[in-house]
Design a protein that fits this description.
hydrolase, Ubiquitin-like protease family profile domain-containing protein, about 230 residues, Adenoviral Proteinase, Chain, alpha/beta, 5 strands, globular
């Protein structure tokens, strides 16, 4: 999980610094996925009383994730965002498109995960609605459509490379590359490239300077729990 979050931060920095051409894009963390799932459970308990606030709202205005804070608002400053998601012991990734109001799911094994993806399809439009002021254009709360990207091959025969596939599928989708570029024949090299990218980022003077200016988020909306 730490490696995945590290790469999502690195993707954010690459686009923010214009080292990558695509813009108006956001990258979420594994923690974000967990918070969406937990918030969806609260939403189902009482849909009428459920309100978007606290951490979810902070994500929507770009204050979170705190590492790589962009302060870009979903659907106004950001057209799409990429999300890693753990389903059981398996990693997948997604592209949430605010323009088409849709979610594309990338699963190297070609499986369907309606129960795991539904919280995003339901809550993301509600977050967008909550963060837009009365002066903004009207935004209807309608569940996003979900589709699954076809995988070119039977992938992940090792059953241990799904995390790497999830990250590389995000990279391919963002940069307009064909998913067939990543397969079981070169996934080991892809894993090594991820490790090298993280090592290279750790000694990058520009990234080191940006990390030195990190400020933790101000809002904590959940209760603190003491661990024995």
């Amino acid at each position: 999980m730490q490696e995945i979050d590290g790469m999502m931060w690195l993707f954010t920095e690459r686009t923010s610094l214009r080292r990558w051409f695509p813009n108006k894009v956001a990258f979420m963390t594994c923690l974000f996925s967990n918070q969406i799932t937990n918030s969806y459970n609260e939403y189902k308990k009482d849909k009428k009383k459920f309100k978007v606030g606290g951490l979810l709202q902070q994500y929507g205005i770009g204050e979170l994730p705190a590492h790589g804070r962009t302060r870009l608002m979903w659907d106004l400053d950001v057209n799409r965002m990429y999300v890693p998601l753990n389903v059981g012991k398996h990693w997948i990734s997604m592209c949430v498109n605010f323009v088409t109001r849709s979610i594309e799911v990338f699963d190297c094994e070609g499986l369907r995960h309606p129960g795991a993806v539904e919280p995003f399809a339901v809550l993301v439009p509600r977050i967008v609605k909550a963060i837009q002021s009365s002066k903004s254009r009207q935004c209807q709360v309608k569940q996003y459509t979900v589709s699954y990207v076809s995988m070119p091959f039977l992938l992940n025969k090792s059953s241990s490379d799904c995390g790497e596939y999830g990250l590389k599928h995000i990279e391919c989708h963002l940069l307009g590359l064909d998913f067939s570029m990543v397969n079981d024949n070169n996934i080991r090299e892809a894993r090594q490239k991820i490790a090298y990218d993280l090592w290279e980022a750790a000694i990058d003077p520009v990234l080191i300077e940006r990390m030195a200016k990190f400020t933790p988020p101000k809002t904590i909306s959940s209760a603190l729990v003491e661990l024995e």
